[in-house]
Structures are given as structure tokens and as C-alpha cells.
Amino acid sequence: MKACQYLEINQPPQIVDIEKPQPGPGEVLLRITASGACHSDEFIMSLPEEQYVYGLPLTLGHEGAGIVEELGEGASGVEIGESVAVYGPWGCGLCHPCKQGKENYCRYAAERGILPPGLGAPGSMAEYMIVDSPRHLVKLGELDPVQNVALTDAGLTPYHAIKPSLPKLIPGRVAVVIGAGGLGHMGVQILKALTATTVVALDPKESARQLALDVGADHALPSDESAIAEIKRISGGLGATAVFDFVGIEATAALAAKMVHFESDIVMVGVGPGTIPVGFFTLRYETSVRAPYWGSRSELEEVFELARIGAIHVETETFGLDDAPTVYERMHEGTLRGRGIVVP
Ligand code: NAD
Ligand code: ZN
Fold first, then answer.
1. What's the pLDDT band for 132 if we cut at 50, 70, 90?
2. Distances 143 to 102, 154, 265 between C-alpha atoms, Å
3. Among the atoms of ligand 1, which is closest to the Cα of residue 183?
4. Distance 174 CA to ligand 1 centre (A)
5. Domain match, 245 and 168 both
6. Is the same domain home to 6 and 34?
7. Structure pTM?
8. Residue 247 and residue 271 in contact, taking contact as beta carbons nearer than 8 Å
9. Which amino acid residue places its CA nearest to atom 30 of ligand 1?
């Protein structure tokens, strides 16, 4: 089968021909219908050799959807021919966080070498992939896999980032999304669907600001110091109640820290090297800072429900599997609108 693999440190991924996998006991073989390209893929491919821990060759793709092709011995709960999406942050399934569905925070995944598809295990940018357990599948039903596959990360991660801030996001307040790309344009929609806040998107790219407005942002501004005064004005002098930073570099972290008011939240989702110093004299009183990773199994069900009722949708650009390396080039150039989706 064809697969898009990262083969050599800091070199572009390539399309290769590899053996079609066979499902072992308890596993599920999917024929891939869609696979999303995430900026995290580009991030790991930019790491120097000494920091790269995902194995080579690596079949990319941690946002996957497919048709159940074959069930390994004892695997049950899904039928052959069913359309499903893959929950990516695989855990052991048995520890306390896993029992709560929070496999993204499995206690044992790291020490047992349980790795997400596309980030260690073979991913979805291929004609077929193995899912280690039916527990990691969400039934898509009538939802189109190409339009919805990115919900597994670009939807789930912002949802998980936003949900704990909901009690603070009361009507009249301002929520800020920094970076209106794959995750950010979903963050805007999730905020609009779940709150009555004014949503402001910040992005240096005019096309990304337009995308944010198109999907429901109330304002879209360049991502620089001028946004601080503008957000103050929009919020009636208060400042932002929550900032969701989908970039996470020093510049965006510094902006976030300057635009919040008391008892606000700053949520660092982007994997940039930015940090937010917290101290009595360094940040507004009782501002909370957190850096969440992906989301839980039950939250993924909730995200798909939002899509089912039409409250959120992913803006997509589609590519054939042979063009998968092009998606990462386009991501690097910053010319993608929303999410790039590979359709084998
Ligand atoms: P993307 O490439 O689709 O979008 C990034 C957006 O940020 C682009 O619109 C770009 O113009 C904008 N941007 C760049 N510099 C900016 C700046 N200084 N200020 C404001 N906007 C700026 O990326 P994506 O796939 O949406 O991923 C976003 C980030 O989230 C990446 O760092 C990715 O690795 C990370 N991520 C984290 C998790 C997690 O679990 N925490 C999960 C998935 C992705
Ligand atoms: Zn991702």
C-alpha cells in the first residue's frame, strides 16, 4: 500500500510503497477515507535528531478516518464496512485517567511505549492503518469523513482547551484566539457555539483573519501590540477574559499576558517555546495559565455532536495521497485555508 512517511531527519516526507498491515488480536484494520495534516507534524519534522523521539520511518497522520476493513481476533463493537474516526491519544485503557476517558493523560502510555498513530505508531496518511482497539473509534454515521476527520485533533484540542474556561466566559466578556489556522478556526467556532462572548481572532495573515471572520469571529486583528488597546476598547476597558494561544511563541505569550484582566485564563495550545511567567507582580491577579494536550474520548464524542447539529464545521482543502508532501509545503508557506486533508 501507499503511505506518506517521514524517513530522514529534517527532510520532506515521501510517498512510499509498504506492506499492507494485518490486524493482530483486538485490533482493527481501517481503509483510510481521510487524514488531516496538523502543524504538529511539521513541528516534529523540524526537530533536530537528538530531540526527535517518534521513530523512523514514521507513517504520518494523527487525524484519521476510515472504513472498518477487518477485525482482529476478539475485536468487537464495530462492524465491517462501518465509517469511523480515530481517537488519537492512545492510552493503556486501565489506569485512572484512562477510565475517565482521559487517555491523553494516561499514566503508563509513555513507559509502556504506547504512542499515538502518526506520532510514533503508524498513522493515517496511508491507504490502511491499524487501530489498537475499537475503544479508539468514533462512529461517524452520516458525517462525511473528509469534512470531519480533523475534528479528531483540530476540533478536539481547542474544545478541551476551552471547556474548563466556560464558567468564566459569561456574556459580555471577550475571548481571544491567537492563530486562526487549523485549530484556531475551530476554536473560534467552539467559542461561538458554547458561549455568548465576543470572540476576537489575532493572526498576522490577512487570509487567516478573513477565515476567522467567515467562521464567526466578531473581530479579527493583526497579531501585534496594537491588539492590546483594541481588545481593551472592545471589552469596555476590561481586557480579555480568556486567551487561547494556538501559536505559543514568546511574542504571542507576551501578548496574551498583556491583554488579560483579573481572574482570566491563558491557555497555551501551540507548541512554540513561549512561556508565561506567573507571579504576584508579573501577571494580573488570579490569572490561570495552562498548557493542555489533545482531549478525552468523551470530549471527542461531544465535538462530533457539535458537528452533527451544524454548530461547527472544518474548512478544508483536499489533496490526493500522492500530494501529501505538498500539504506540508503549503502549511510551511502558510497558504492553506483551514485544514489540509489527504484523501487516499
Ligand atoms: P496551522 O499552521 O494550521 O495554523 C497556525 C496559524 O497561526 C496560522 O494561521 C498562522 O498564520 C498563525 N500564526 C503564525 N504566527 C502567528 C503569530 N505570531 N500570531 C498569531 N498567529 C500566528 O497550525 P495548527 O495545525 O492549527 O496548529 C497550531 C498549533 O497547535 C501548532 O503549534 C501545533 O503544533 C499545536 N497543536 C497542539 C496540540 C496540543 O495538544 N496542545 C494539538 C494539535 C496541535
Ligand atoms: Zn495535531
1. very high
2. 24, 16, 33
3. 26
4. 21
5. yes
6. yes
7. 0.98
8. no
9. 270
